[in-house]
């Protein structure tokens, strides 16, 4: 039985890490989307845990946020 992205703890961790890092860098969702080469609404959907993200887009967003991709997938207290 499939679960929605909102029901997956890893999706929530990713969403929180993206939002936290984006705000630390002083970027809007639109600015991050442009840097990562994705649509601006996609960033909002990811940050609200409404959309599942591909490995490729994790990498693109991590590059735009200047972090390792793995850092977006672990709880902040763990790194």
From TrEMBL:
Domain HTH cro/C1-type positions: 18-72
Pfam families, A to Z: HTH_3
Keyword terms, alphabetized: DNA-binding, Transcription, Transcription regulation
Record's keyword annotation contains Transcription: yes
Family annotation (InterPro entries): Cro/C1-type_HTH (IPR001387), Lambda_DNA-bd_dom_sf (IPR010982), TransReg_Diox_bact_type (IPR050807)
Domain of life: Bacteria
Keyword Transcription tagged: yes
Protein name: Helix-turn-helix domain-containing protein
Lineage: Bacteria, Pseudomonadati, Pseudomonadota, Gammaproteobacteria, Pseudomonadales
């Amino acid at each position: 039985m499939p679960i929605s992205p909102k029901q997956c703890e890893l999706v929530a961790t990713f969403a929180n890490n993206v939002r936290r890092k984006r705000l630390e860098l002083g970027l809007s969702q639109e600015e991050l989307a442009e840097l990562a080469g994705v649509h601006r609404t996609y960033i909002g959907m990811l940050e609200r845990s409404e959309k599942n993200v591909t490995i490729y887009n994790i990498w693109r967003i991590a590059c735009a946020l200047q972090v390792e991709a793995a850092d977006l997938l672990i709880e902040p207290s763990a790194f």
